[in-house]
Design a protein that fits this description.
The protein has 244 residues and is mainly alpha-helical. It has helices spanning 18-28, 31-66, 97-100, 114-121, 129-135, 148-151, 171-175, 179-184, 189-210, 214-228, and strands at residues 72-78, 84-90, 138-141, 166-169. Strands 1-2 form a two-stranded antiparallel ribbon. A two-stranded parallel sheet has the order 3-4. The longest helix is centred in the first third of the chain and has 36 residues, at 31-66. It is globular.
Length: 244
């Protein structure tokens, strides 16, 4: 049941580079953490779904009453080894939102519904991804999954983040929890994300790979909880030198 790391020769060609190899070697040495990671994912995700069953039902009803459209939003994202999967979220935007604007969301985006704004603030829109975790598409802690169009813009080193499944949360998620506010001041949010935000986030993600381990995953989960309830233990400084 433990998480498996493919043999080097079995990786996609785009990942078989010297830039990725150093991260591969780090992860390969931590077999115990790899085995524990999948077991931990299944146990924690199952427990969370039991406790969140009623709140999720209430959220579903609120979404239906607030605006027309489905309860869930599904979108193609990229996970381990470049595999495409459908991510699940509670719908927080109007129907056909991707057709009405950029694929990134900014602060005060007119496409966000009233209920959606609340869900985003407390990150409750991410709850359905617990099913993605049980399906094996995602893990609790790891690099947040990007859409295919952004993965195509990865540098050789960035592809190392695809050695492990996409995550529900990460150090990067905590540091950039107000990402929509950062992008709100950009003339072109989509370009700003690709040229400024994505590279900065990937530096955090690559650092996280160097620290990969079961204990670190537990710390990240705790810090995520602290961040959501507004009691950050972190004082994260972005690579630009600015504090969030």
């Amino acid at each position: 049941m433990g998480m498996q790391l493919r043999r080097w020769n079995s990786l996609p060609d785009v990942m078989k580079t010297k830039e990725v190899r150093k991260y591969y070697n780090i992860i390969k040495r931590r077999q115990v953490s790899l085995k524990l990671k999948r077991v931990f994912d299944v146990v924690v995700a199952s427990i969370m779904l039991i406790f969140l069953a009623i709140p999720m039902l209430v959220i579903a009803v609120c979404i239906k009453l607030d605006s027309r459209g489905p309860v869930f939003f599904r979108q193609e994202r990229v996970t381990q080894y470049g595999r495409i999967f459908k991510i699940y979220k509670f719908r927080t935007m109007v129907v056909d939102a991707p057709k009405l604007g950029a694929s990134v969301t900014v602060d005060n985006d007119s496409r966000i519904t009233r209920v959606g704004r609340v869900l985003r603030k407390i990150r409750a829109d991410e709850f359905p991804q617990l099913f993605n975790i049980l399906n094996g598409d995602m893990t609790l802690v790891g690099t947040r999954p990007e859409v295919p169009e952004y993965v195509k813009k990865y540098t050789k080193e960035m592809y190392a983040t695809l050695l492990l499944p996409a995550g529900l949360t990460s150090r990067t998620s905590i540091a950039y929890k107000d990402e929509d506010k950062i992008l709100a001041g950009a003339d072109n949010p989509a370009e700003a994300y690709v040229n400024e935000v994505l590279p900065a986030k990937m530096m955090y993600n690559l650092e996280a790979l160097k620290k990969f381990g079961f204990k670190e995953d537990c710390r990240v989960l705790w810090d995520t909880f602290a961040s959501v309830v507004g009691n950050d233990r972190l004082s994260v400084t972005r690579r630009t030198g600015r504090k969030r």
